[in-house]
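Our preliminary data section would be incomplete without showing what the modeling component actually yields. Below, a chain of 556 amino acids is followed by its predicted structure, encoded as tokens that our downstream tools consume directly.
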Amino acid sequence: MARPDELVFAPLGGVGEIGMNLSIYGLGNRHQRAWLAVDLGVSFGDEEHLPGIDLIMPDISFLEKERKNLMGLVLTHAHEDHFGAIIDLWPKLKCPIYATKFSAALFEAKCAAERNAPEIPVTVVPSGGRVDIGPFNVEFIPVAHSIPEAHALAIHTEAGIVLHTGDWKIDPTPTLGAPTDEKRLRELGEEGVLALIGDSTNAVRDGRSPSEAEVAKTIIDLVKSAKGRVAVTTFASNVARVKAVADAARAADREVVVVGRAMERVVQVARETGYLDGVQNFRSPEVYGHLPQDKVLALCTGSQGEPRAALARIANDDHPEITLNRGDSVIFSSRTIPGNEKAVGSIINNLVLQGVEIITDRDALVHVSGHPRRDELRDLISWVKPQLLIPVHGEALHLHEHAKLARAAGVPRVLVCRNGDLVKLGPGDPGIVGEVPSGRLYKDGTILEDSKSRAVVERRRMAFSGCAFVAIAMTAQGELADEPEVDLVGIPEKNRAGETFDDLVFDAVMSTIEGLPKARRRDPDALAESVRRAVRAVINEHWGKKPPCLVHVLTV
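Predicted structure:
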């Protein structure tokens, strides 16, 4: 009798971290499997640790090798951490993509806004619909989240059903879109769910995430009571929040001015797909200065402190059309993503110095998370009754707490894994059975680099300790043809004793050359290495840091 095919799962991003989501499911045996990819997202660079890096993406080298067996890529929703890497990485895979209408439309608009974006076809699947992708039958189950058309995926296979939750919460009163489909999730629980691959973002928080309806009510009250101009910043993709802001503006007899390209793009897509039906038309930034102060509301990008976004430019007083003054208000209808605190704090401080009133989620219920807290996680487990639960979409603490909660809720098997672990889901006992290549790619300008890239490593070192450049001209006989040239970048001018580093380095170069035998002086590589070591040593002696040193030897 033939052995049934194994169903395996491997996270290539999004486990042990928040962001950069990519999961793969395989069906078959050790020698050949059909693969299904779920999401292909980014996380964002940190200037302190990754200077010059815009985006971080998952390493897809494993999928490139398995390209002929990759049946398709399915999108749970259209947040950047779930679909932001597609434009850069899809040309290496060229597999079919499946998404619902809003996600597909937002992706199309994103491609249209990018220079030289490849033509990437997307197959649109109805919300609640099912599609066959190779041996996988994928069902899109509506869930509440902070963007329209978020879906959990029920992946039906001959080895069993896997529920991949994507990002979700339980919101009985969403202001936009369908609530989480409890009925269908309970039905799946009755059919039998082999594994639940679940969002852990808020697994450390007790209770339940509040509803969008409560935020909408708070925003109406705040906008109605505001005296001067009002600006609201939120995630551009949070269309429910955009609608709440529009409703608040209408209640307060204010015009909405949309500021920022990302916000304009989402608003356009939301109107095209029917999510802003009945919402008043918004105005462009040019009219802002012509409206009375108590009749305008600016809806801005930049809630995460992005330096080129609208709110940063307003806070720096260099936006061509939008200004704020003493007595005006800014509502941060968002949470600060870890790592962005400094950038957001800088914007808030600049606005405060201009006399602007700041309202954040510390002051009022102006933001709620799109992810489930602990009581919601328990509800889902009770509906779905999985045989196995694997926490994903979280850092180590989130995964640990989600796993602990699942065990306490009676899930028979709970397994915590890492990016790159190959997990057998069934049939038979689940467990980690191997490893697949995983890692990170860095988007550096228009170039993709791997995480060991020389450019990234050297730039990080240069950001910490500057760089020394030395040019030496030697004759064929091993004599100096001219004085060495020294250029120090990002290195202090003087040491604690007041001696200039230029002189210290020049002297070190000269004494090194003079102290070498002629044979080594005639060898450009040996000479360059001796000078490099001497320069780094003298700077370290007087500064305590060893900068990279580039030595160019020219033979004349």
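The radius of gyration is 28 Å. The mean pLDDT is 94. Preliminary results of this kind motivate Aim 1 of the renewal.
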